[in-house]
Write a structure and sequence with these properties.
The structure holds two protein chains of two kinds. By secondary structure, chain A is an alpha+beta fold. Chain A contains 36 helices and 13 strands. Among the domains of chain A are: about 210 residues, no CATH class; about 220 residues. In chain B, strand 15 and strand 16 form a beta hairpin. The chains are: A alpha+beta, B mainly beta.
Chain lengths: ~950, ~450
């Protein structure tokens, strides 16, 4: 919606020359010069030529106590993916960075072995020789037969794109934590099972031994013990000791705090556990391994009752035993769950980082538009818990990286500038905290913010210095532990991590110094919140000018801001974005200044001409406070009307830009994508987390829609019908053809609620009024049978509620349309060639419509009289004036916005729990028959 | 081919631009009855009674108790001096029971099942705080469902309609006869009531199909063959009558609509309604407006619908709504026409041919009369198409809209889209204000 993924850059090419000189030339700042090395057929998007694998994959490795580090499996499980990449070598690399002290044994003060509930460590490492960068997630599983009861494993997300790993660190971490937690849960279960069986074995052995000893005692009445008897007694004693130890282990594993799998933010340590852990020090438990019977690998099939076996005292050699597989370790169910999760991760992070970021941005923005987003977006995924944005700085770091790269690689200074400007919008405040602040201490906040940063910076600096000084080839700068510690202190202090130019500099330095080593550990959780030094330079004006000083007093503030001083740049940018995209925040958050003096405000935008192209991938801002959450009182709004400037200028401006860029770029992008080869695969990123199907659908729908627009000259009235809530029936004999048309048109159908898309692809029976309530786009079979007559009869009966597109005779019967919105939406001369691009174009136009509908719906004075004495007529005329003059709507466009507004109202009023009665709105307007 | 007037898709005056479909019934919905300003009940052949909110379309209660179809329903608000007003509804069913329901909680208050035949009509005498049930006999009940008195067995066919007349009288339509009963408190007992037959009126040639009280002085009956008789409510004499046999031949100006398949059904007076001046009759497919003062039909629409008109109602704003077996609801406006001498005026009432009892003199007289008086006509201002089967009845809720019920098991609430839209805005801003308050408090 917000941006098209295939609009990556605009490159001038020969073939476009014709089009270019006909249209007004593109402003200089939008054009990116040709990639300097384009001559050799190089792909400017190919970042690392040296990588030996074709696309990102996930590798699970184990540090086997028998053979050392070994790769276990890859996801996707396809030899082509890893290619010539040396998995063994890389396994060694990733296993060797596991710093964690994860072993079990007799702590000095304790008689029994202690299990150590080791937390996972998360690091990023790079191997420049292999051209591989990896997010590595270490975890430890328990195995009764393993040394120290532990089996170290790791899961790694391997990509050729370093920046991808860096920027997606938090997301990767969240997702992998889920996978890891799933594995560990299964493992605990399996381990407890194993222990129980072992206990039964031991118990049985003890009984047997005991009986034997008794028999010997009886048989032997000589008064002294034979060596045999002594041996037996020793054996018995050791079995008993072993029982106690195993019981203790069982108790420990069972006392493991129950946690929800889904909760990715838990802290695994119970206080006493943490204490215990400190004491853990010694080796493995000799008794346990002594008595382990290697031949008897407990079976994990669920047996109704377990027959205890005798455990022999003699233990086999360590290397003879067959270690359990990962599947055995974790219980089949959990293992498959984990694999599912890993596949999910693989799908989620597939594609270029640019796609991922764009997707995240639009998702974050969408989420903010809690009032309007249901209309044209698939918002079901918004219900998913978003990845926790705890370390905002991680994004900043990644941003920095991209910037550097851009300044190094591309020689266009303009691009750098624009990147620099958006960088300023990198949000440094963790979401979690912001919510806290929202809740409670908005006034206090700025004080605490002002007082704390210095301390924080020191902390960061110290951390970074440490990392620089280390000359090791492997540096682990950050782990979850230190990261979480930091977070805790942050949230206690209610302190946002402030961007620090100084820290940024040193950070950059550190990266450079390490780069000659083959393994670079790049991730630094604590120092992630760094913003490079050019951060400030990019928005100098924004700091000095304080457009929203009044906000605090006015009480109209929409989003609590962490720090007016520093965040102002971000505000500014975000405001521009709001204006460009006219999202929810535009109207509500900054309404009162706009009302009072809009023009100066617009005038001081540093780069307002940038339009849509100026929104490059950037880590998304923390979700602003949703509209639903807290809405400012609207009393201030009734004063005047929104100036026309606000809307028309930005909307039309952005439209022009987006249109041209979309049109021109589609070709070059498609060329690019076909030429693309190495590093991250070129398959477009999934539409959103976990729904590749959505993306495919969009693409297909977009393509079909394009075809529809080109084929049918009466596409406009058809689309208008859909947008104005008039049910469109696609009538035809051929099911495939009808379904295709329905798919094509479905992208124009506003949703009535968040859950059901009112589209029915194929119906064979006669329609009823209820159907028009439920569905706004219906594919209907035309049949020759008597039933078919009924169908047609029903159509003519309800013709006033319907527009009918006859796919067979290529006619359309529907009301007249003379507006402009649909013309823009569906220009049959459009040069957009790709379905997904067209889909994005549609989404952007529809988003503009949504924002208009939003403004219209939530402007108090448009619906209610300003004073008691005001007549209904004057309100109506004001409303129409607003629609026509302020929103610039022509003729039937008014109806579209009114319909959308009605949907917004219904959605907003509706109580979350109840579905509400679907209602059918209609107009008594004459229909016309269109023919090709 | 059809002479039915159509209006097309552009209906500027039609205010109903939004509809809500109320689902719940599993069979034909035949009755809608208003309970108070915002609630109504619906009942039909499935024996279930639903209570609805007319504003939101919300289903309030579902009343189960009858095992057969509902044959009559009447609202009954009992208001004792001490108690608060409670809204009750009385329903009669083909299972020979009558149940009284409390609308406030949807519970069954009481059930009577001592009937010998199906109760076909119910009427409430609010003034006396009693209600009457009419089947094969007429019973009088008080609010506590004590049988006060009853008539002897009248007819097997049962009473088809009841209407309250002044002076504690009741008119009951029994077949072709109209029987007037008087209700009196008997001298013997304190709670004793008596019902006495006072008069039998046998002026109708065919079964009386509708019976409506116009005001304290007049009531009107209509019969299956299209007779309309205006009665004096005090002395039960015939004030005027319109008969069905105005031969279309005496109206050369009216294009003959002679259909060979004409059946008595098409002349049947299905429903009557009235305001102070006029009686509106749904006759066959047509609608006729009979002016009580002028004692003649002042306007008509002979084929208002494609098939029989089942229910008509007069709205305060000179509009008339009719619903029909063809599944449509039409809105008419009674307009005064500038009289042009050359223009033929449709004056005929039942322009059916047929029974050879033409009253040409009356017709001629009427024709002469209205040359000097304003002429009215019914103009179609809108139609509502939604039901897929016969619309049995509708209920006009003023600005809340219009509820229609139909044989397709549905009830549709038709609403003024503009009004609903502004109401939603109002709700929206109220909700905003609430959440705004919430935020300030934090």
């Amino acid at each position: 919606m917000i941006s098209a993924p295939d609009v990556v850059a605009f490159t001038r090419e020969e073939e476009l020359e014709d089009d270019l000189y006909r249209e007004p030339p593109l402003p200089e700042e939008y054009s990116v010069p040709l990639f300097p090395f384009a001559g050799q057929g190089a792909n400017p998007w190919a970042k690392v030529a040296g990588s030996k694998f074709t696309r990102d994959f996930i590798l699970i490795s184990e540090f086997s106590e028998q053979v050392g580090p070994q790769p276990l499996l890859t996801i996707p499980d396809d030899a082509k993916v890893s290619g010539t990449f040396d998995l063994n070598y890389f396994s060694l690399r990733i296993m060797s960075v596991d710093y964690q002290a994860s072993f079990v044994g007799h702590p000095p003060g304790s008689a029994y072995p202690k299990l150590n509930f080791v937390e996972d460590s998360k690091v990023v490492l790079g191997d420049s020789k292999e051209g591989a960068f990896a997010y590595v997630h270490h975890l430890t599983l328990y195995d009764l037969e393993a040394r120290g009861f532990v089996r170290p494993f790791c899961m790694a997300y391997i990509s050729a794109d370093e920046h991808k790993i860096m920027q997606q660190f938090q997301e990767l971490s969240t997702e992998f934590s889920k996978a890891s937690e799933c594995l560990k849960t299964g493992n605990r279960k399996a381990f407890a099972n194993e222990l129980e069986k072992k206990l039964k074995d031991l118990d049985y052995t003890r009984t047997v031994l005991h009986n034997e000893t008794e028999q010997q005692k009886k048989a032997n009445d000589k008064g002294y013990y034979t060596t045999q008897a002594i041996e037996k007694a020793n054996e018995l004693a050791s079995v008993e000791k072993s029982i106690i130890e195993h019981q203790d282990l069982l108790r420990q594993i069972r006392s493991y705090p129950y946690r929800k799998l889904k909760d990715s933010e838990f802290h695994p340590y119970e206080p006493e556990c943490a204490l215990d852990r400190a004491d853990v020090g010694s080796d493995q438990d000799p008794a346990a391994s002594d008595h382990a019977e290697p031949g008897e690998t407990p079976l994990y099939t669920h047996m109704p009752s377990y027959t205890p076996k005798l455990i022999k005292a003699k233990s086999a050699k360590c290397f003879d035993k067959k270690l359990k597989t990962l599947e055995e370790l974790c219980d089949v169910y959990f293992f498959t769950q984990t694999l599912d999760q890993l596949h999910h991760i693989e799908r989620t992070f597939r594609g270029d980082v640019c796609y991922l970021l764009t997707e995240q941005i639009s998702r974050a923005l969408l989420k903010q538009q809690s009032v309007t987003n249901f209309l044209f977006e698939d918002v079901s995924f918004l219900d998913e818990k978003p990845p926790e944005k705890q370390y905002r700085g991680c994004q900043g770091l990644g941003q920095d990286a991209i910037d550097e790269k851009c300044s190094e690689e591309s020689l266009a200074p303009k691009v750098v500038i624009s990147l620099g400007s958006y960088k300023s919008s990198v949000e440094c405040v963790p979401i979690k905290m912001e919510q806290e602040m929202e809740d409670s201490e908005e006034p206090k906040m700025s004080e605490s913010v002002m007082s704390e940063p210095q301390e924080n910076l020191d902390y960061l600096d110290a951390d970074i210095k440490g990392s620089i000084s280390s000359g090791e080839s492997i540096e682990v700068l950050g782990t979850e532990k230190s990261g979480s510690g930091l977070t805790k202190s942050e949230s206690q202090a209610s302190l946002p991590v402030m961007p620090s130019p100084q820290a940024g500099r040193s950070k950059v330095g550190s990266r450079r110094t390490v780069s000659e080593d083959s393994i670079e550990v790049l991730s630094t959780c604590p120092s992630e919140s760094l913003i490079p030094e050019d951060f400030k330079a990019s928005y100098p004006s924004a700091i000095n000018e304080e457009p929203y000083v009044d906000d605090d007093e006015g009480g109209l503030r929409f989003t609590p801001r962490a720090n007016p001083g520093v965040d102002d740049g971000q505000d500014d940018i975000s405001k521009q974005e709001s204006l460009v995209q006219v999202d929810a925040a535009c109207c509500i958050g900054k309404e009162s200044p706009n009302f009072l003096e809009p023009l100066p405000e617009l005038g001081q935008k540093p780069c307002e001409e940038d339009g849509v192209v100026r929104i490059p991938p950037q880590p998304y801002r923390p979700a602003e406070q949703g509209l639903r959450g807290g809405f400012p009182s609207h009393d201030g709004l009734s004063g005047g009307l929104l100036p026309y400037e606000l809307d028309s200028r930005y909307l039309s401006g952005s439209r022009e830009v987006s249109k041209s860029s979309l049109d021109e770029c589609s070709d070059s992008t498609s060329y690019m994508s076909s030429a693309a080869s190495t590093c991250s695969d070129r398959t477009p990123s999934p539409a959103h987390l976990g729904s590749a199907a959505g993306e495919r659908h969009r693409k297909r729908a977009g393509q079909n829609a394009l075809r529809f627009i080109r084929q049918y000259p009466f596409a406009h009235p058809a689309i208008y019908s859909l947008l104005s809530g008039r049910t469109l029936v696609v009538l035809g004999e051929d099911e495939a053809m009808v379904k295709k048309l329905v798919t094509a048109l479905s992208i124009f159908v506003p949703n009535c609620s968040a859950y059901a898309k009112p589209v029915k692809h194929w119906v064979t029976s006669a329609l009823h009024l209820v159907d028009f309530q439920k569905w706004k786009l219906i594919g209907l079979q035309r049949a020759v049978s008597p039933a078919g007559v009924n169908v047609l009869h029903a159509l003519s009966r309800y013709s006033r509620y319907l527009s009918i597109l006859d796919a067979d005779s290529k006619t359309l019967r529907c009301p007249l349309y003379k507006g402009t919105v649909v013309t823009r939406l569906a220009d049959h001369r459009t040069q957009i060639k790709r379905g997904s691009t067209y889909y994005m174009h549609v989404q952007s136009v529809l988003t503009q419509l949504c924002s208009k509908a939003f403004l219209f719906t939530f402007c108090h004075h448009l619906h209610l009289p300003i004073s008691e004495r005001e007549s209904e007529e004057s309100v109506v005329s004001r409303r129409m004036n607003f629609l026509k003059l302020q929103l610039g709507l022509v003729n039937e466009d008014v109806k579209i916005v009114q319909y959308l507004a009605e949907l917004l109202k219904l959605h907003y009023i509706q109580e979350p729990g109840q579905g509400g009665n679907p209602l059918l709105r209609f107009d008594y307007v004459p229909s016309f028959l269109y023919k090709i | 081919k059809s002479s039915v007037q159509t209006i097309g898709e552009e209906q500027i005056q039609n205010p109903y631009t939004e509809l809500l479909v109320l689902k719940g019934h599993q069979d034909i919905v035949r009755f809608l009855v208003q309970i108070d300003d915002y609630r109504f009940a619906s009942a039909g052949d499935d024996g279930i009674i639903f209570l609805w909110n007319a504003q939101t379309g919300e289903k309030l209660y579902e009343l189960h108790g009858h095992t057969h179809k509902i044959t009559a329903i009447a609202p009954f608000s009992s208001s004792d001096v001490t108690e608060e007003k409670t809204d009750l509804i009385i329903t009669a069913s083909a299972d020979r029971t009558v149940i009284v329901w409390d609308c406030a909680n949807g519970r069954q208050v009481q059930k009577v099942s001592c009937f010998h035949s199906t109760v076909k009509c119910l009427t409430v005498l609010q003034r006396l705080n009693v209600w009457l049930s009419g089947g094969s006999d007429l019973c009088v009940w008080n609010q506590k469902l004590d049988l006060l008195c009853k008539t002897s067995h009248l007819t097997d066919a049962g009473i088809s309609a009841l209407v309250e007349l002044p002076k504690n009288c009741i008119a009951a339509a029994v077949g072709k006869e109209l029987i007037i009963f008087r209700l009196s408190v008997s001298n013997s007992g304190s709670e004793g009531w008596n019902i006495l037959e006072v008069k039998r009126l046998v002026d109708h040639q065919d079964n009386i199909s509708s019976l409506v009280s116009v005001n304290d002085l007049t009531f009107v009956t209509g019969s299956h063959i299209g007779e309309l008789i205006v009665w004096d409510a005090l002395d039960w004499t015939k004030q005027a009558s319109e008969c069905n046999f105005w031969d279309s031949s005496v109206h050369p100006d009216v294009q003959p609509e002679i259909k060979l398949s004409q059946s008595p059904h098409e002349t049947s007076v299905q429903h009557l309604t009235s305001d102070e001046e006029c009686v509106f009759a749904a006759v066959g497919k047509g609608i006729y407006v009979y002016n009580l003062q002028m004692k003649r039909v002042i306007a008509c629409q002979r084929t208002a619908h494609d098939s029989s008109v089942l229910h008509i109602e007069k709205l305060p704003n000179r509009q008339l709504i009719s619903c029909s077996e063809d599944g449509s609801v039409r809105i008419w406006e009674l307009r005064e026409k500038q009289q042009l001498p050359a223009e033929p005026v449709p004056t005929g009432f039942f322009n059916m041919w047929g029974f050879g009892r033409a009253n040409k003199q009356a017709n001629q007289a009427a024709k002469k009369m209205h040359e000097s008086t304003p002429v009215y006509f019914l103009e179609l201002v809108g139609d509502l198409i939604g039901h897929s089967s016969a619309v049995q009845m509708f209920l006009y809720f003023g600005e809340l809209g219009l509820a229609t019920c139909s044989a397709d098991h549905l009830i549709i609430l038709w609403k003024d889209g503009e009004r609903e839209s502004s109401l939603r805005s109002l709700t929206l801003f109220k909700k905003l204000a609430q959440s705004g308050d919430l935020q300030l408090r934090l």
